[in-house]
Amino acid sequence: MIKTKRPANARVGPARFGLAVLCLLALALGMAGLPARAQSPVPPAGGGGSLQVLHWWTSASERQAINVVVNQLAKQDIQWRDVAIPGGAGMGAAKVLKSMVLANRAPEVTQLNGVVFGEWADLGLLLELDNVAVQGNWEKQMFPTVWSLLNNHGHVVAAPLGIHRINSLFYNTAIFKRYNLTPPKTWDDFDQIVKKLQGTGIVPLAQSAEAWQLATLFENLALAESGPAYYRRLFVEMSPAAFLDARMLHILKRLRSLAAAMPQPVRERPWTEVARSMVSGEAAMLIMGDWAKGELNAWGMEVDQQFGCAPAPGTGDFHLYSTDTLAMFAGNYAHQPMQETLARLTMSPAVQSEYNRIKGSIPVLRAADPHMDRCARDSWRAFSKGPAWQAPSLVHRMATDDTTKDAIVAEVQRFFLDRNLSEEQTQKRLAAIARTLARNRND
Ligand code: GAL
């Protein structure tokens, strides 16, 4: 028989730095391993109630995509109650979630991407969805990488929505046509485009100074530099030696030199504004996760008409991925039937197809969706090649815990904004972060 609840003797996982603090607080509040206090009012089993869902899908396409799920849920007589926290990549939402949990007001459902849900599961807070996964044959249906991401010590602890490709380059087709440009396959090709656009008044690369958006460029450069194996040594294994490697020096030099291709000054802007500056013709290219494609579609623009898509330079063979997932807080298990209904819904082929078409991502299902556009097919092909071609996004929490990710992302932004910091100094600082936090993780 499959257990849905966490066994009483379930081990609390390795105390990761930062999470250790959370653990202590959780223990102090009497939450770890124990069912949280009942959420009120307790809804009847099955439909006829509501689920509070914390997430950061606030742009036009994000809302439209999530409405696919909201509507399906409504058909089951379950109301989706929104706790939408704006802020790209969930930087704000992650903080709100922690505060809500510590105040013993955990939402019933949360958008929770990446390795971090293992941390919440280790605290005994997440509902195990093993029954739903077995009934729906999830293991066979979905990509193995997604399946293993959802599993924590042999239990499924989240329901997947889709897979985003972070190494995506979008370009303004009118500008490319006017100046006879082709999508850059390498960073040298990219430099040629920058040269050709000199003196035209067009900014080659749309960019924001928000930390996560600068780090998006950084992780793309890291993947382009030496492929997924080196990328994993950096961001999954957190090898100090990898950060001190000459390749990192090259990545940082490239990152800094790209400033010349960006709008001046590079301001902190939401990703939607940055995407708009590309389609409006102010900028020629944009490197961003493919939710940008979903957003452009929501604004009435189509692939290969107003804009084109290609893999980011130097990463054509690879897939820098991030998956969107929903985790459920167990609480007193009063919401379990509705939470399981939601989990079941996310994996229905119809929801997968429609949601991902609007969102810009691809379904988590191995079987190719015939409705995918050119960019999605390309993403699907690259992802299907398997783990050797895949790189887990640092920025979107696929590679390491939140504390380490936040420390690296902040360091990258500091380096980009402060010209007085040399590449060598930054390398040392990144290696020190890797050394300290990896040590903490293994303690
Ligand atoms: C990612 C998330 C996407 C998209 C993006 C922009 O972390 O996976 O679904 O919302 O942030 O905020």
UniProtKB/TrEMBL annotation:
Highest taxon of source: Bacteria
Keyword list, A-Z: Signal, Transport
Protein localization: Periplasm
GO cellular component terms listed in the entry, alphabetical order: periplasmic space
Pfam families documented for this protein: SBP_bac_1 (PF01547)
Signal peptide from the UniProt entry: 1-38
The keyword Transport belongs to this UniProt entry's keyword annotation: yes
Record-linked InterPro entries: Bact_solute-bd_prot1, SBP
Role played: Part of a binding-protein-dependent transport system for a sugar.
Family, as annotated: Belongs to the bacterial solute-binding protein 1 family.
Record-linked PANTHER family: ARABINOSE-BINDING PROTEIN-RELATED, BINDING PROTEIN COMPONENT OF ABC SUGAR TRANSPORTER-RELATED
Protein name: Probable sugar-binding periplasmic protein
Organism: Herbaspirillum aquaticum
Phylogenetic classification of the source organism: Bacteria, Pseudomonadati, Pseudomonadota, Betaproteobacteria, Burkholderiales
